[in-house]
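A brief tutorial aside. Many learners find it easier to grasp structure tokens once they have seen a single protein encoded end to end. The record that follows does exactly this for HTH-type transcriptional regulator RipA. Read the sequence first, then the structure, and try to relate runs of similar tokens to stretches of the chain.
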Amino acid sequence: MPETRHSSPPPPPMPTQGGAGWLPHGFRLDTHTHTDGQLVYAAAGALATTTARGTWVAPYNRVTWTPPGFAHSHRFYGRTDVRVIAVPAALCDALAPHPSVFRVSPLLREALLALTDRPEVRPGAHERLRAVVLDELTETAEHSLHLPEPRDPRLRAVTGLLHADPGRAATLAGLGRAVGAGERTLSRLFHTELGMSFHRWRTILRVHHALVHLTDGRSVTDTAMECGWSNPSSFIEAFTEVVGQTPGRYRAELRGRRT
């Protein structure tokens, strides 16, 4: 994902045990674990959660889920209004047993905001609201924004080249020549290790970067060109298929939340 350097004062610590806080663009929380489960929601901005299983990107219409015991890190893009909800280990069986991303419905968004905005004024109020959150999260998580990472060294070499330059226009055969592996072997490894084609994996990688660029205020056209699409129309089609809305609408809703 794009790196950002800045010399601003250190931000306040991320509310890892629950609550809300604003984090600056580029803030990173290094690899760690929790004894409880954790939902992390960017009410504004976007975040990437990385585990050994890969990376999930969550804009304002997604929430990330990390079960107890999974080592993970976070990186935040745009000035991020981060909301954290701890889920006691005893309740985690209701959710996916592995890190996931869930779509945020209007009811789920309001429940997440209320849990992290309001002090508890009646005994048990937060527990009841948390139950609403768990009910809203479907049993099957959404994986459209999940970018798995390979174990095979040949495939890792190829994905490393693409991580370094997502807009790279090379074919799988060309990438294979660069790392000393055959196109047919790499194609098989993408399917067996990552469960998707080379084209699909690179599309999701590019959409991850596109989300970051749009969150940072880039135009749809500039984002398309920088992330490797030959024209805005093909970018809009791919972005909409993965994210569930057009990049233009995503930018417009981002602006609305900032104001």
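Self-check: The domain at 19-136 is CATH 2.60.120.280 (Jelly Rolls). If you spotted this yourself, you are ready for the next section.
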